[in-house]
Design goal:
Radius of gyration: 21 Å
Structural class: alpha/beta
Strand order of the largest sheet: 8-7-6-9-10-11-12
Low-confidence stretches: none
CATH topology of the largest domain: Rossmann fold
Order of helices and strands: EHEHEHEHEHHEHEEHEHEHEEH
CATH superfamily of the largest domain: NAD(P)-binding Rossmann-like Domain
CATH class of the largest domain: Alpha Beta
Largest sheet: 7 strands, parallel
């Protein structure tokens, strides 16, 4: 059975070699590519003979999937699977497993870092210092005691809430469509969360219900001093509405790590010219520790599937 790793996993080769040894012990053969190709023809060439494909966030469309007659399983080295044509996979009976939980702590820690950056005006103060100016006019604010609204009560959202409550004595509010119980905060309707929160941070998957969840109407509910953080998926927020809110000072700051497309952004992207905005190049998940755990999960997904007990199935 052929396992094709069609792009790098951002870990040392010895980790891949260790997992390849386990695959071989279970009658599986690994073939890997050490560069990244995203065009359809290249993807078909890399996937066409595979029984199992491993990839991160390369878009895998129906044309590629349908060109792979042997494909039975996709092990996604990512949390979201919105870049995979899931309808095509279901039609062909292809199992899709994700790397659930690999980046929980990485995303949560960057989220907290973005809170500090916004509250303490780090970007503005760094620029001022480089321009040989002093600290006048940029007094910051504490995270301690703030009301933090978390949209999405999955593992990442709850880890952010735990840190905020335990370490900084924050009042934590959650909005979660499934009404999932939480240990660190209170479930409230979305509109209430937006009205009451000093900081709103997004931690939910992209789907038909969450796309455009935060738009003009929702942003208008937030206080002029409030902070919006998005380390979830770009289309969860209406970018044009956010740009207008920032330009009108309807909200105080936005810290964004996710966009409608993968960075680099085009030079005319509207967020590049907005005030009070911190922009990250989609790095919340990207730590050495997370990448090692991710590799372990994607290979374990394959072995579990091989033995008839698939995990992390989407």
């Amino acid at each position: 059975m052929n396992i094709h790793l069609i792009e790098p996993l951002s870990v040392e080769q010895k980790i891949i070699d260790q997992n390849e040894h386990m695959l071989n012990e279970n009658g599986l053969t690994l073939k890997q590519w050490r560069d990244r190709k995203e065009d359809t023809n290249s993807l078909i060439e890399r996937c066409k003979d595979a029984d199992v494909v491993i990839l991160t966030n390369i878009a895998l469309n129906a044309e590629v999937i349908n060109a792979c007659p042997n494909l039975k399983m996709i092990s996604v080295a990512f949390t979201g699977v919105d870049h995979i044509d899931m309808d095509a996979c279901r039609e062909k009976g292809i199992v899709v497993s994700n790397a659930a939980g690999y980046s929980t702590h990485s995303v949560a820690e960057l989220t907290i870092g973005l809170m500090f950056s916004a509250l303490r005006n780090m970007m503005k103060n760094e620029t001022k210092t480089r321009n040989l100016r002093g600290r006048d006019g940029y007094t910051g604010a504490l995270l301690r005691g703030k009301t933090v609204g978390i949209v999405g009560a999955g593992a990442i959202g709850q880890e952010v809430g735990r840190i905020c409550k335990v370490a900084f004595n924050c009042n934590v509010l959650y909005y979660n469509r499934s009404k999932k119980p939480t240990d660190s905060g209170t479930l409230v309707p979305l509109n209430e969360l937006l009205k009451r929160s000093d900081i709103v941070t997004l931690h939910l998957p992209l789907n038909s219900e969450s796309k455009g969840l935060i738009g003009e109407e929702q942003l208008a509910l937030m206080e002029p001093s409030s902070i919006l953080i998005n380390t979830a998926r770009g289309p969860v927020v209406d970018t044009n509405a956010l740009v207008q809110a920032l330009k009108k000072d309807s909200i105080g700051h936005a810290a964004i790590d996710m966009y409608e497309q993968e960075p680099p952004l085009p030079e005319n992207h509207p967020l590049l010219s907005t005030p009070n905005t911190t922009l990250m190049p989609h790095i919340a998940y990207a730590t050495h520790e997370a990448f090692v755990l991710r590799a372990e999960i994607v290979f374990e997904n394959i072995l579990k599937w091989k033995h008839g007990t698939p995990q992390n199935v989407q």
